[in-house]
Design brief:
Chain lengths: 490, 155
């Protein structure tokens, strides 16, 4: 009897963001499909609008990472107007961006990864939430997480205008310089962030790395794929979120490509599957060979695991130490274990905090010259940054007045889409046997894609503001034979 | 007493703009009676907005498909069932309330949610649909009434 299991978040993104698991006659998994929502229609929406509006408009694409879109768009405008911002402006941008990374990565670790790793993937589902996490690590830590985030968000507002939809990025610079008295606040906030990041890595060490079961899960074949990895690197091949070249390493760890953001179309292509809205990115240099891993398949990954693999190190001392410990513990480079993303994320958290502190202390950060006025006639601009969830591409073509004729965006989740699809399939095959399915197992299938911190597109605040999951079992004729509601909606 | 009126939504997504547009209208019509804010974020990121307020009103779009578009619905935050969300982006109000209570954060004691049943939440650049525009008038009245009640009780 062929059965279908469906894990379907019934949110506003109805019909998207679900996992279909097809069982064969033996009750083993025939194939599992992950469907994730695609950012549709936005590129059309951008057409006919002034390019200068893009940092504001694109930041509204997502209720999750507006700062990343704002920054990618701002960088695309620099390129569009062929204008080089003054050093002070670059540093202010990177400072704000680094603080955003701290805040975003912290949220992910404690609120998303935490339920899986601190509470445990097979714990009763009622405990697999932030309250369960706080129950394990202590309420004081919850206060600390919320307190640090609040402090950092206030700093981002101070420099960037609105924290949710920042308005500081302009072609050739930023909207206003930092004042001397503000610098002191940034230094204090960044110092706090460094301590917080160290403390978070400490928790990971104590709760996850000292638990053999968790380490076995991280290392298990079920959550492992040998693919290419992509990330932005600085001139020394160290991880950079804001600037640099795009570097790709092969599954065995050697550099395969290194190119300027402006050359992305020469190396990245998109593949379409009939069962998914999302376009699956792959490396043109290798080609699309189906959902296969290995050096002959063009599938690559982005986000923390990929960034660490694609680099030669971290540009700050404490993060570099953590980077070395990570690769030593996990058996050298590259690390192919998807769940190691959680650890890699914390190393990046530490880097972002240390980088914030470096930049906050830099005397140049209070230089009042923060803008180079564009004088060139615009035609085409490409901006690439690392979003917390991976490499983010913004590409605009305009007329001579700067009105957008064509826009192309590749979001992090698209870069990761093929590997995520493979992760879900492999996890389902590895975990579901002979028709035995329970809540804990399904959660462990979801862990296969949750580690990537996939962004499900546009803001998901619409009521009920939550994602009830359900599982449906179908027989060979697709008749519904069982239905499990994970949790209720309204 | 400090009261917050928070409009949620995304201006780019057709009817999803209704929370934002309503709060803008309220901020003019009821100036001084509360603090007004708008946001496109979700889940835990909303926490920062509420800290320090005694009471709060949330205005949002809702899609139950069980009521005609434009219907105003009134909900208590604590009556929305909590969920084990698969992503922090989906953590909802119940989680916020639970966390704030657990951590003893200075959080509103009462949160009222007024939501308008909508048609279309997906079309990027789509206009707000006529039935929803009509419903906004009633929504404004309902929120104004709630604010009056609270303000009178504390006068």
């Amino acid at each position: 009897m062929k059965r279908e299991i469906l894990i379907d978040p019934i949110t506003r993104l109805e019909g998207h963001g679900k996992i279909d698991i097809f069982l064969n006659e033996n009750g083993d998994v025939d194939r599992a499909y992950l469907q994730i929502p695609e950012l549709r229609g936005f590129e059309k929406f951008a057409e006919g609008r002034p390019a200068e509006d893009m940092p504001q408009i694109t930041s509204r694409i997502s209720g999750v990472c507006p700062t990343a879109h704002h920054m990618a768009a701002t960088r695309a405008l620099d390129d569009l107007y062929k204008v080089e911002p003054p050093d002070s402006a670059k540093k202010i941008r990177e400072l704000i961006y680094s603080l955003f990374f701290v805040e975003d990565h912290a949220l992910h670790f404690f609120f998303l990864g935490g339920p899986d790793f601190i509470v445990g993937p097979t714990a009763p589902k009622g405990e697999r939430n932030i309250l369960g996490v706080l129950g394990k690590v202590g309420m004081e830590i919850g206060k600390e997480v919320i307190g640090v985030r609040k402090e950092l968000r206030e700093l981002i507002s101070l420099a960037g205008g609105k924290v949710i939809h920042p308005v500081f990025g302009l072609p050739g610079g930023v909207a206003r310089p930092l004042k001397k008295e503000e610098q002191t606040k940034f230094i204090a906030g960044a110092e706090h962030a460094v301590k917080f990041a160290q403390f978070s890595l400490g928790i990971f060490n104590d709760v996850v790395l000292k638990n053999k079961q968790y380490v076995d899960w991280i290392l298990s074949d079920t959550y492992t794929h040998k693919t290419y990895y992509m990330g932005l690197v600085d001139e020394n091949n160290r991880v950079n979120f804001y600037d640099g070249k795009i570097r790709v390493v092969a599954p065995e760890g050697k550099e395969f490509l290194k190119f300027k953001p402006q050359e992305y179309l020469e190396h990245i292509a998109e593949h379409v599957e009939p069962w998914s809205y999302i376009k699956f990115c792959y490396l043109k240099d290798i080609g699309w060979k189906g959902f296969e891993e290995g050096a002959d398949s063009g599938i690559y990954a982005v986000a923390p695991l990929a960034r660490l693999n694609a680099s030669d190190g971290m540009a700050t001392p404490l993060a570099q130490e953590a980077y070395e410990q990570y690769f030593t513990t996990l058996g050298g480079k590259p690390v192919h274990h998807t769940l190691a993303n959680h650890w890699a994320r914390l190393i990046e958290l530490l880097y972002a905090a240390e980088r914030s502190l470096q930049l906050a202390k830099d005397p140049e950060i209070v230089n009042p010259n923060v803008r180079t006025i564009p004088t060139e006639i615009p035609t085409e601009g490409i901006g690439v940054v690392e979003a917390p969830r991976g490499t983010l591409f913004h590409h605009y073509q305009t007329d001579e007045k700067g009105i957008v004729k064509k826009a192309n965006l590749i979001v992090a989740t698209q870069n990761n889409a093929a590997r995520m699809a493979m992760s879900v399939d492999k996890a389902a095959k590895g975990l579901i046997k002979e028709g035995q399915v329970d809540d804990g197992l399904l959660n462990m299938v979801e862990m296969g894609f949750r580690a990537y911190d996939p962004c499900h597109g546009c803001a998901t605040h619409c009521l009920p503001g939550q994602t009830p999951l359900w599982v449906r079992l179908f027989d060979a004729e697709h008749r519904l034979i069982q239905e499990i509601k994970h949790n209720g909606g309204l | 007493m400090k009261v917050l009126v928070l409009g949620l939504g995304n201006e780019l997504l057709s009817d999803d703009a209704v929370g934002i547009l309503t709060v803008r209208r309220l901020s003019e019509e009821l100036k001084g009676q509360a603090d007004f804010a708008e946001s496109a974020v979700c889940g835990l990121a909303l926490l920062d907005y509420f800290i320090g307020y005694d009471k709060a009103i949330i205005i949002d779009a809702i899609k139950t498909s069980q009521n005609p578009p434009g219907t105003v619905m009134s909900l208590d935050a604590e009556h929305i069932p909590p969920v084990a969300a698969p992503s922090p982006h989906y953590a909802g109000l119940p989680e916020l309330l639970a966390i704030s209570m657990e951590l003893k954060i200075d959080f509103p004691q009462e949160i009222r949610i007024f939501a308008l049943e909508v048609n279309d939440l997906h079309t990027i650049g789509g206009a707000i649909t006529p039935a929803v525009v009509n419903g906004m008038g009633e929504l404004v009245k309902v929120v104004a009434r709630q604010l009056r009640e609270w303000n009178m009780a504390y006068a």
